[in-house]
User: What shape does this take?
Amino acid sequence: MRQTVFLLYSDDTKFVADEICKNIFVNRKFYSADNTLTSDLLKEMASTCKGECFYLIKTDKEILFPNFNFYYSVSEWDRQYMHIWNNDTSVRLFDKEIVLTTPTNYTDTALEAGTVSLKNIDERIYVDPIFDIIFLSYDEMYADENYEKLKYRFPRALRSHGVKGIFEAHKQAAKLAKSPMFYVVDADAIVVDTFNFDYNPHSVDRQSVHVWHSRNPVNDLEYGYGGVKLFPTNLLLEYTGSPIDFTTSVSKSFKVMQDVSNISAFNTDPFSAWRSGFRECSKLASKIIPNQDNTETEYRLNVWCTKGENREFGDFAIMGAKEGMEFGTTHKDQPELLGLINDFAWLEKRFSS
Assistant: This one.
């Protein structure tokens, strides 16, 4: 007989709770302002339970149950234990009568104090969600090659190609995505061997945009420029704000991930190198990115404009950086002109003139 399944959520974890409920049948959801399991909640759960036992799923992170059926039955001699799986307290199984008698023994406070009687079952009963990977390409020289490399390691990767405008291309990527969050990989990105697209954000970060560092092959800077990004799908689909640097404004929360995800190999030809320097330094110099650290920004601008001349097409990257810094400074209060940095036809015309 399937046991009763309850789920605990808060305002911050409601989105995670909804995703879990799409995956399994939950008998009832219980609200807690801080997602904490209290004795009062435990008593209410036990009183509501129609069977002998009940499961509780905590919504600290999204989890999926492809094979587990919630049929596990507690032995008579194990009723006093809170059962967990794989030494993980995300899913807990309680005996109803024991909880009704001593609810304070099984709260989160008791768990943190180490006083809960636990019985671990050495089995992994859930999996983490797998987020879609969308590869964005337009006219990049090695886009096909980079996509094949990505696809070889991660067969689930999809491609959006030829959509005019970076903002529009990301919107199209969000339409392709079937998962609640999705990764974006730029066409000039060479993903490093240590990056596996397996990050599962905590519930409070599920509506945050995550950006990993990338390595610049011209000047060796390592920061978010050109890095792999993880977007909340619904926020990007609904976004109607500024298209200039929407990565930092799609969500109220922006999270920088310090690990290097890829090499941003933009220096494949003169125009691509120039375009990359121009676009990035226009954004840096205009300070359009929210909450920029001015000292850090000035340092990055200086490196873009001075370092790497002897690297492949480094002179064009520096040329673009200097012109972009001037453009961004001049038009910092003119968003309609700054928006031109996302118009590749306009950029090519400017480069050729």
